[in-house]
Amino acid sequence: MRKLIKTTLKTFGLIVSLGLIGVVALIGYFWLTAEPMCGNDLLTSTEIQGTGLKIVTFQRDCGATTGFSTQVSIIPAKGQLPNEEGNIFTGDTNHGAAPSGPGGGPEVRVRILGPKEVQLSYHPKTRVFRAETGYKQVKITYSTF
Q1: Dihedral angle at the C-alpha atoms of 110, 113, 119, 121, nearest 10 degrees?
Q2: Cβ neighbour number for residue 98 with a 10 Å cutoff
Q3: 99 Cβ neighbours under 8 A, 6+ residues apart
Q4: Which of 29, 101, 111, 115 is deepest in the core (most CB within 10 A)?
């Protein structure tokens, strides 16, 4: 009787272990092959003269559980918008306190002030998560409208 219980417990332990290994393998497979949850939709693109760079505004959407945000990046002039967060600015409408712009997030206006200086403007009630003051050789200033 004891031998039967030991054999049964060993078999049960082996089955549970193999099951856990299978679950971990499936999670790893789906994690490595799944499409990214977030996507970027380009709104504007403006070349910054004399720098080989361009400034792009885009709407970033990370699914139904998040709101729309407007983000801004500086990227190589000949580059494509990567599926990443903005590298200089991120803001949202603060639950509707700021009006929505073309992409669903707040409007962000880009103005080239010179060969190495840009100004970003946004509604004063925009909730700002990121606002860098420089990127590579480009100075960035901010204002509200």
Answers
A1: -60
A2: 21
A3: 93, 106, 107, 123
A4: 101
With vertex at residue 114, the alpha carbon angle to CA 120 and CA 111, rounded to the nearest 5 degrees, is 25
The range of the structural domain enclosing residue 88 comes to: 39-144
Structure-block tokens of residue 79:
């580059």
List the strands of the sheet with 138-144, edge to edge.
108-114, 117-122, 138-144, 134-135
Task: Provide the token pair at 98.
Answer: 């700021």
List of E strands, 49-100: 53-61, 69-76, 89-92
Indicate whether 58 and 28 sit together in one domain: no
3-state class (DSSP) for residue 26 = helix
**Per-residue model confidence as pLDDT tens digits over 91-137:** 999 999 999 999 999 999 999 999 899 999 999 999 999 999 999 99
Only one residue has tokens 């760079």, namely 53
> What is the DSSP track for 96-107?
TTSPB-TTSSB-
Q: Are residue 25 and residue 44 in the same domain, yes or no? A: no
Look at the chain and report how many structural domains it folds into: 2
